[in-house]
Specification:
single chain; about 400 residues; alpha/beta; TIM Barrel; nine-stranded parallel beta sheet; two-stranded antiparallel ribbon; 14 helices; about 45% helix; globular
């Protein structure tokens, strides 16, 4: 089980003091959070991608990832979102391969469409084409990392003729990709088709919805022949706020929740925590609630927590991380690993991906020759041929 933290980089006024950090303070705090995650032995630090206020998360996440890579040695660097819809696939292919080299392979990505409508026209895109953009752009990105002299013609960009993205991925193995979505089944379908991971940001929706999305991905992963349903690669998001006792946690977090740019001014804190996985309480309550995710999401490989949203000052964020790293994560890691069956894989790393590549075991998009998907295509072709012969 990979355990870590992520940021969406909002620059939000602290409702308890009225002070808003500067962009410079927020950016430097983000780097401090990443360094703290490594210091505490966390497995992953992830950053979002935004292009609009009130966010200062990098418009080009590899810039932040490169800076963090230079100041860390072990922690996996990921994106909480790479905007596959509004970022050119050629740019993604080259930028992330470059930072993959700088980080000695400690890089992966979560592809997403974003949740801010105005961003689309800023980059010449139509939000009504969000799903087709995600599908076509990733098809091209997948090829750019695995092929040289790429010829490509699609709906949303100028054609490519004999194009080679540089630098090539480290050791000939692209960064692992998670496909993130909280509502659109086309995205877990895409993840399953390629044999990639599926990341559900387990914050806003009830457990029943999350369970349905994860189950759908698992079923389709098996259908495409990448492994059994319980071997599919699943990641979950989440958010917590802790104090030694739950009453203090609720009291301290309430003003931040009530004014949060993502979910403030809506349901009460009590309603929200009852209906979603947001957990505000003691470290033991966080442990118990997080372990319960397995009941509806199965054995997942990655669990990340949003730690710095809604104007929380950096001092408080680092204190929350201390509790996560020292009291919560050791128990979660032990309990999750003990419950996971031996045939369920760990989260992919560059080392494991290189070993799989050298063994000729890379996933085949759409399923290998022994997959149900391939057999269904053969059966359909035989039916069509029979119908043609008897017509």
């Amino acid at each position: 089980m990979q355990l870590g933290v992520f940021t969406i980089g909002d620059v939000t006024q602290d409702p308890t003091t009225g002070r808003t950090p500067t962009e410079n303070e927020r950016i430097r705090a983000t780097v401090a959070i990443a360094r703290k995650a490594e210091e505490l032995g966390m497995d992953v630090f992830a950053t979002g991608q935004h292009h609009n206020p009130p966010f200062v998360a990098p418009a080009n996440p590899p810039v932040l990832m490169a800076a963090v890579a230079a100041q860390t040695e072990r922690i996996q660097l990921s994106t909480a979102t790479t905007l596959i819809t509004t970022t050119d696939p050629v740019r993604i292919a080259e930028d992330y391969a470059y930072v993959q080299h700088l980080a000695d392979g400690r890089v992966d990505l979560t592809m997403g469409r974003g949740n801010t409508g105005p961003v689309y026209p800023w980059f010449g895109k139509d939000i009504r084409q969000g799903i087709p953009l995600a599908v076509e752009n990733y098809q091209l990105l997948h090829r750019l990392w695995r092929e040289e002299d790429v010829n490509f013609s699609g709906r949303f960009r100028t054609p490519l003729q004999g194009f080679t993205a540089t630098p090539r991925p480290l050791d000939g193995v692209p960064p692992f990709v998670w496909h993130g979505s909280i509502r659109s089944p086309e995205i877990p379908e895409q993840a399953a088709f390629y044999g990639d991971g599926f990341f559900h940001n387990n914050i806003f929706w009830n457990t029943e919805h999350t369970g349905r999305m994860v189950d759908f991905y698992r079923q389709r992963y098996e259908y495409y022949g990448h492994g059994s349903a319980d071997q599919a690669i699943v990641g979950l998001g989440g958010q917590v706020f802790m104090a030694k006792n739950s009453q203090d946690a609720v009291r301290r977090f309430r003003p931040y929740f009530d004014n949060a740019p993502v979910y403030g001014h809506g349901p009460s804190l009590e309603e929200f925590t009852a209906q979603t996985p947001l957990t505000v309480g003691s470290p033991q309550q966080v442990i118990e609630r997080t372990l319960s995710f397995r009941e509806y999401a199965g054995d997942h490989q990655r669990q990340l927590f949003l730690v710095d949203h809604a104007g929380l000052p950096i001092k408080t964020v680092l204190e929350q991380m201390d509790m996560l790293g020292e009291e919560v994560f050791p128990v979660l890691r032990r309990e999750f690993d003990a419950a996971r069956p031996a045939h369920v894989p760990d989260a992919p790393t560059h080392t494991s991906l290189v070993a799989r590549h050298r063994a000729g075991q890379d996933p085949v998009p759409g399923g290998g020759p022994d997959s149900r998907a391939a057999k269904d295509r053969v059966a359909k072709a035989r039916v069509t041929a029979t119908q043609d012969a008897t017509a």
